[in-house]
Every structure is written in C-alpha cells, then in structure tokens.
Amino acid sequence: HPALALFVSPAQTSLPASTMSRESHNTAVLGQTLHQRVASSRVLMVGAGGIGCELLKNLVLSGFKTIEVVDLDTIDLSNLNRQFLFQKQHIKKSKAHVSERILVQLPFRSYKYLRIDDESKVAKESALKFNPSANITSHHANIKDKEFSVEWFKGFDLVLNALDNLDARRHVNMMCLAADVPLIESGTTGYLGQAYVIKKDVTECFDCTPKVTPTTYPVCTIRSTPSAPIHCIVWAKSYLFNQLFGNSEEDEEEAFQKETSDENALEIEALARETAELRTIKEAMGSDEYGKAVFDKIFTGDIERLLSMEDMWKNRTKPTPFYYDELAATMQAQTLSDVNGLKDQHTWSVRECFDMFMDSLTRLSTRLLNAKKDNPTNILVFDKDDNDAMDFVTAASNLRSTVFKIERKSRFDVKSMAGNIIPAIATTNAVIAGIVVMQAYKILNGQLSQTKRTYLKQVTRRPGLLVLEANSEPQPDCAVCRTRNIGLKIDIHHTTLQSLLDNVVTASIENGGLGMSEEVTILEGDRYIYEVLLYDIEFDDNAEKTLDALALEDGKILNIKDDEVDDDTGVNLVLQHATSVTLKNGASFELSGPKRPAMTEPESLGKRKREEGDEMAINAKKAALGNGSVPAASTPQEDAGVINLDDDETAIDEDGRTVKVWVLEDD
Predict the structure, then answer these.
(1) Which class would CATH give 229-405?
(2) What is the spatial distance between Cα 343 and Cα 346, in angstroms, rounded to a whole number?
(3) 295: closest CA among 324, 329, 326?
(4) Number of C-alpha atoms within 13 angstroms, CB side, residue 421?
(5) For 547-586, b where at least 16 C-beta lie within 10 A, e where not — what string?
(6) What are phi and psi of 313, to 5 degrees?
(7) Which helix (H) or strand (E) holds 451?
C-alpha cells in the first residue's frame, strides 16, 4: 500500500493474500471504524499535476470512495516524466478527466459517473484503474469559478491542495476558512517538500506567514544593461519574441510609463524609438531581407546606440556589437547531431547561435504569416514546449549574452529559466502525497491535534529526512483567518447595497445586524485577494443598485471593514440568495456565524462628507470598478510588474539559479 508502506508493522501485513480482498487490506491496517469513515468521506482534491497524480492514486488505493478533482491545466509533454497517470496520447487533454478515465478501464468497474468536464478527466480515468469502485467526479475548471461557492466547499469533509500557484492557494485557503472545512496544503521543489493542515481557529492559515513574491526586472536593466544570463533570457522571451510574433504594444507602453523618471527619461525615450523601429521592420516579414534586417537592428544598431551613451559605461563593461556579414563569413558550425552527449545540455558556439537564430526566425515567421491568413489578429505565444520558440529564445539570449560579456547557457538551462521550471522529482511528489493521506487519516479519526507540519529535507541534524514540527496557532494579526465569515441569506435581486448597509451592516446586534458604524468599506471578495471597491463613505455611487446589478451572485463574498474600529479585520459576508418565502418567519435576511460581541458604542465621528475638489480620490476608487461603477470582473488584479518572469512563487537569482521555495510544485 503506497501511502502506508512505512507505517504498517509486519503483523499487520501477515494475513494470507488469498483471503484478503482489496478492501480487507485497508480494514486490517486502519481498523473497521476508521476504514468506514474513510469510505464514507467526501474529499476535494484541487490540482492534478505532479503531487496530484500521486495523491489521487493514493486516495483510491486507501479506501476513499467519493473524490472530486478540479484542475484547469491540460497535459504537456514535459509532464510525462513524473505525472504517471498521463501518457503520450493524453497530451493536450484535460489532466483531471484523463486521471479519472485511467482508473476506470479495469473490467470489473462498479462505479458510476457523476460528471466529466475535461482536463481533470485524465486524472480521474487513470486513477479508477487502481480502484474501479471509487466514485470520482472531475472538473476541468478554475477553482475560482462561481460554481465552486462556499456552500459547495461545505459539502466536503476534507480539501487537499496540490496546486502550483499562489493566487489559487490563497483562494482555496479563504474558501476553506469560510466553509470551516479542514485543508491539507502541500508542495515540493526538487528534493524538498512539505505538507501541513490548515483548520480555522486551530492552526495558522496559508496567509499567516509571508510568501515569496514574484521576481521582476526593471525594463532598463533588461533592455540596456543586462548583467546576468536571466536578464538576456527575459529580454529574448518577454520582449523580442513578443515584439516579433506577439502583440505587446500595451505592455511596452505601461512599462515605459511605470519606469520613466527624471534620471532615465532620455533612455526610456530611446527605448521607445527602438521598439517603434522594430515594428517597422516587422512589416517586411516573409521577405528575403527580413532576417538580416532584424539581426542588424538588435545586435548591431541597438548596441551601437548604447555605446554612444558614454556615461552608462563608466563603471560597466562595454558591450561589443555583432555584424551580420562577419558572423556569416565565419566557419560553418558543426551540426548538433555531431555533438557528444545530450544535445540540449550542449552550450552553443556563437556561430551555432547565429545559425539557429536565423533558422528559428524563419520558422516562426512562416508560422505567423500562415496563421494570419486565417485571422489577421492571430499571434504566436511563447511556450517552453514549443521547439521553434525555445530555439529562438536560446539563440537570441546567448547572442545577447555574448555581446554583453555574459556567460552563455545551454538550451536546457534556458528552458528551465524561461519556463520557470523548478526541478520536479517524482519520488519527492510520492513521499509528500503519502504524508497528505496520513494527515487525512488523522483528521477523519478525530486526531487533528496530533497532526504535524511535515518537511522533507535533504540534510537534517537528526536521523531521517522527515522533520516534524508542531502546528502553529493562527497569527493574531492575520487579516485572512482572523476575519469573521458569516453566511447571509438575502434576496439578491431586490436588495440594494444601501438596504444591506441599513438593515444588516449598521443595524444593532440586538436587532439582528452586525452592529458596525456608518464608517465602513465594502469590497467584493476577500480584500487581500480581489480588492474591488463597492462602497465606502466617500464613494456611494453603488448605494441604490441591487446586489445582482453589481454582479453579486450566490457564493460571492463581501468583505466589510469598520473604519472606526482600530485593527478591525472585518467580516466576510458569504451571499446566498433567498426570499421571504424561504427565510424563517418571513424575515428579510438571515445571518449565520460569529457576530461581533455587543460592546459600548464608540463616540461616532459622524458621516464624513465628500468635499469639493476631492474628485481625484473618488475617481481612483472608481477605477477599480471598470466601466461605470459595476465591477468589470471578479478576477484578481494583476501585479503591475514590468517584466514578470514568474507567475507563481518561483524565485530566480541573478545567475539564473532557483532559490529554495517551500510551497511549490512545478506544474
């Protein structure tokens, strides 16, 4: 049994195989009571990647019968070396669905389909091979979709995270806190990993401790003064590739505006001219002169312009421009088939980079021109598994590195850095997935207090590779887990925001309300994730609009903070549509959850009035709402980084080395 192999004594495994059915193994190990609890539990698994594949297999082998899987991704070729539920024929299919199907293909299936949605199907199908009696529902969807409401989360006994990005982790953390459902968080990077339990009011939550922020690079460093391989790789991937084959005009304009200052205004102006010149050259795509024109522009003309700025090189090594005719006249590079060892780990010579740059430029240009025949707006998007794109980025970044006297990197290294790939090891994923199941057993057995934060490390001061630590208590200043989550049943179609304020938010506790002051701020969603302003004392444009007119539906969360109470973490109101017919005693609303204890009312400061001339502050608040005052979308706001190498939690240092991060699995 994979999850229990290290925890079962010889006596527990000595029963004759001929007398033991699939279920009797689990019963012998767990005992009848816990085995029945496991079999009757409902488990949600979010993520069907490296850890998720191992975890889903463990769950169905460990006696879990009812499992739902949510995953948004499709299967890439690079997944196959460690995500064993997937095979070559599954590439580009839904992870969650394929996993489901693989587990189904044994002849003695006795399960029934609940729902099949697409990517999570692959994981579902694969997992059912191990236990056809399991009842697996797969969802190819974003866990943040409105269908996955707080009420939906409340339907599970356990939630297991096998995610790879910070935003989704925070969302699941918030939803589990609101639903008061135990969450087991996990992650791996290389040989390192961890798993731990999050339970409302018992342990610290995911946001109780700060997380690694994405690495960003100033546009001037990337475009003018690179000093490390990663700078050249980001330039080739995020700037050059997008300029030639994508559509990055808005991103460029935003980056220039963000970084313009008195000190670098001339440099930013020059960079803007370079970008415009490259767009002009792009119009010649497909002609015989196109490749040489691009090369001359970025490796000769742009570098000579930088050299003309003498002050820039007083304390830096000057770059050396390349000249097309000189490189073309050098000795022909050997073909990569003549290279000893793995081709991708061979560092190309300058001539090899030159040849590959020209060849990949032609290949990508041809693809783009053909795509535009079908739709003039078509573009190419960088993908680390696209060989043409990787050839181009590797060649371009290495040529630029040579220009700036920076070490060149192999195609393998460039792919790792450009694709934000953290080394993923199947064994590490398997160990952590096994630990997650062990934690799940303890929770279902009523032993949550006995769970430990478990870390897998390469080197420890004590015997063994697993380090156990006691769970930490919730941080008193955590604005996420210390926020009260209260269910609100109310008529969404007929209740205005002002009515919500008068009858629910500011009404006294004795009268069934929250007892807050008039000085409140209302945001859609958790304020530390979404930050979409709906109301405050200086912005009441939405007051007379109904909740549904503000795109507030079942399961949406309103964060309400009392501005007159110091250090108030606020209240999350979880909306559920109801009418006076369905509410108790014909009431207009119904609250369920921990209200603020009654206390002496503070002296009111009175309702602050808008002042004439304060339009700038008011308009800034309106900007969060898109057109008009209705939220344009309920998706999180993007970080305003200039060039963001990492969309998740990866940190890469100046030399392109991955910095240790505890909470990631690379997919």
Answers:
(1) mainly alpha
(2) 5
(3) 324
(4) 16
(5) beebebebbbbbbbbbbbbeebbbbbbbbbbbeeeeeeee
(6) -110, 15
(7) none
Q: Is the pLDDT of residue 159 over 60?
A: yes
Region 352-372: what's the mean pLDDT? 96
Query: 403-448, pLDDT tens digit by residue?
Result: 999 999 999 999 988 877 666 788 999 999 999 999 999 999 999 9
Spatial distance between the Cα atoms of 307 and 320, rounded to a whole number of angstroms: 9
The most distant pair of C-alpha atoms in the chain lies apart, rounded to whole Å, by 90
| Protein fold of 484-596+610-623 | 3.10.290
Q: Per residue in 452-490, pLDDT tens?
A: 999 998 776 666 789 999 999 999 888 888 888 888 999
| Active site amino acids | 220
313 vs 531, higher pLDDT: 313
Give the pLDDT confidence of 272-292 residue by residue, as tens digits. Answer: 777 788 888 988 999 999 999
Distance of CA 666 to the CA centre of its chain: 10
Do residues 488 and 574 lie in contact, with contact meaning Cβ atoms separated by under 8 Å?
yes
Binding residue positions for Zn(2+): 205, 208, 478, 481
Is residue 650 within 8 A of residue 657, CB to CB? The reply is no
Domain ranges of the chain: 229-405, 484-596+610-623
Secondary structure (3-state) at 184: strand
Entry pTM: 0.67
The CA–CA distances, whole Å, from 251 to 275, 390, 419, 643 equal 12, 22, 19, 9
For residue 235, what is the DSSP state? I
